[in-house]
């Protein structure tokens, strides 16, 4: 997914219906792109270019990981 993809404007967290933020892939990690809800500290994977936005597909992140993810958010 690209940061200017119009789809990003309409995607919403399935839990709080708020906006999601694109996370760039981390260098040297097998983890790919994902979408992040910083309000609920939940990360949703993007698999083969398709956001997985079921509530059960989101992963809760720790406070330490939350701080790292905030730095990875694509402006």
Protein described:
There is one protein chain. This protein is α+β, with helices and mostly antiparallel strands and 75 residues long. Helices cover 19% and strands 23% of the residues. The protein has two helices and five strands. Strands 1, 2, 3, 4 and 5 form a five-stranded antiparallel β-sheet that branches. Strand 2 (34-37) and strand 3 (42-47) form a beta hairpin. It is globular, with a radius of gyration of 11 Å. The protein starts with 6 loop residues before the first helix and ends with a helix.
C-alpha Rg (nearest Å): 11 Å
Shape: globular
| Low-confidence spans | none
Order of helices and strands: HEEEEEH
Query: Helix coverage percent of residues?
Result: 10-25%
User: What is the terminal separation in angstroms?
Assistant: 13 Å
Q: Strand portion, in percent?
A: 15-25%
Major sheet summary line: 5 strands, antiparallel
Q: Count the E strands.
A: 5
- Write down the overall mean pLDDT: 89
Number of helices: 2
Coarse structural class: alpha+beta
Describe, in short, the structure shown.
By secondary structure, this protein is α+β, with helices and mostly antiparallel strands. The chain has 2 helices and 5 strands. The chain has helices at 7-10, 63-72, and strands at residues 21-23, 34-37, 42-47, 50-51, 59-60.
């Amino acid at each position: 997914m690209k940061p200017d993809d119009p789809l990003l404007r309409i995607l919403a967290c399935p839990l709080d219906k708020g906006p999601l933020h694109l996370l760039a892939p981390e260098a040297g990690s097998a983890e790919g792109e994902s979408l992040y809800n910083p309000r609920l500290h939940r990360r949703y994977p993007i698999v083969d270019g398709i956001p997985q936005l079921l509530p059960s597909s989101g992963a809760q992140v720790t406070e330490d990981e939350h701080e790292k993810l905030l730095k990875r958010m694509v402006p």
